[in-house]
Amino acid sequence: MQVPEAVVFDIGHVLLQWNPRYLYRQIFTGADGAVDETAMETFLANVCSPEWNVEQDAGRSIAEATAVLSARFPQHKALIEAFYDRFPKAIK
Q1: Contacts of residue 15, Cβ cutoff 8 Å, sequence gap at least 6
Q2: The pTM is what?
C-alpha cells in the first residue's frame, strides 16, 4: 500500500462541490426528462434533511442513519439508501 505524501482539505467547496441535488436531480427526473424540483426539494427538506446529515458528520454511522430514517419513511427507503450508496454522484 502506498502512503499518501499529502492530505488536502477542501474547505468551502474550492476543489470539489458536494450537493445532494446533483444526485437527486437524476433520480427525480421523469420519463419526459423534466426534473420534479418541488418533489426533490420537499424530500431534501423533510426526509434527507441537512439536520439528518449533520448527525452523521457528528459521528453517527451511515448504517444506523439509513436504518432510522428508512423506518420513519419506509415509502422513501430506496431514495434514502441512494444518499450514501450513490454518494459520488453528489460530487462535482
Answers
A1: 8
A2: 0.83
